[in-house]
Design goal:
Blueprint: H1 3-30, H2 32-39, H3 46-69, H4 75-95, H5 105-125
Helix pairs in contact: 1-2, 1-3, 1-5, 3-4, 4-5
């Protein structure tokens, strides 16, 4: 894949991933009950913990959308997106198989793995500009 095409794919993935974080974060803040019903999982930590995580998701979503507009200048934010994806993948790989029944976090796991691969490859090819 050409470097320019790879940058476009990463930019689109980063923008869509940012929109995903922004929308789900705002949704969980506005209506935690409907969010929990939709994902088919009641979080045992309660509203305080979930609203805190949702607020962080909103901030990350905005940062990722911003970074997608000029990905060449925002490579460190792509590295953050890669790290966040890994930080979500690892607990999901551990906890999801232990949960009873199906919930939509399985789809989230697949989505996070796909973007982690894209962001990780992008960061790896541009590592000299980060480190």
């Amino acid at each position: 894949m050409k470097k320019g095409t790879f940058s476009r794919v990463t930019r689109w993935a980063l923008g869509l991933h940012g929109a995903y974080y922004l929308i789900t974060g705002i949704w969980a803040i506005i209506s935690l009950e409907s969010f929990n019903r939709f994902v088919m999982h009641e979080h045992p930590g309660g509203a305080f913990e979930m609203h805190s995580i949702a607020a962080m998701a909103v901030v990350l979503g905005i940062a990722f959308i911003y970074a997608a507009h000029d990905i060449g200048k925002n490579i460190p934010l792509v590295a953050v997106a890669f790290g966040i994806a890994l930080a979500i993948i690892l607990p999901e790989l551990y906890y999801l198989p232990r949960m009873e029944g199906f919930n939509l976090f399985w789809f989230d796991l697949v989505e996070e793995i796909v973007v982690a691969i894209i962001f990780g490859a992008f960061v790896w090819t541009r590592r000299e500009r980060i480190f």
